[in-house]
Write a structure and sequence with these properties.
With 85 residues, the protein is mainly alpha-helical. The chain has a domain at 25-76. The chain has helices at 9-38, 50-82.
């Protein structure tokens, strides 16, 4: 018995990864002013904190996953339009 998944399952997983990473980016950027205010973190030579660098990384990864999702959606639509009847 083989375990087959529905078509587009990986696209759905990548979509939710992108959403979760975007939310983590917003959360880390929102927590940054609080930690700067109480003096828990400092600014490096580039004017960035650890939380801002993590937030930028989260946003970049969310962008990569979003590009993958769009590519997979376009590939599925092309397959549906040009598939054999």
């Amino acid at each position: 018995m083989s375990s087959t998944r529905k078509p587009g399952y990986d696209t759905l997983v990548f979509f939710w990864f992108a959403i979760v990473l975007w939310v983590l980016g917003i959360a880390s950027m929102s927590a940054q002013p609080y930690f700067l205010l109480i003096g828990a973190i400092t600014v490096n030579s580039w004017g960035l904190t650890v939380l801002s660098m993590a937030g930028i990384g989260f946003f970049l990864l969310a962008g990569v996953f979003s590009i993958v999702v769009v590519h997979k959606i376009i590939a599925m639509l092309v397959y549906l339009v040009h598939g054999k009847p």
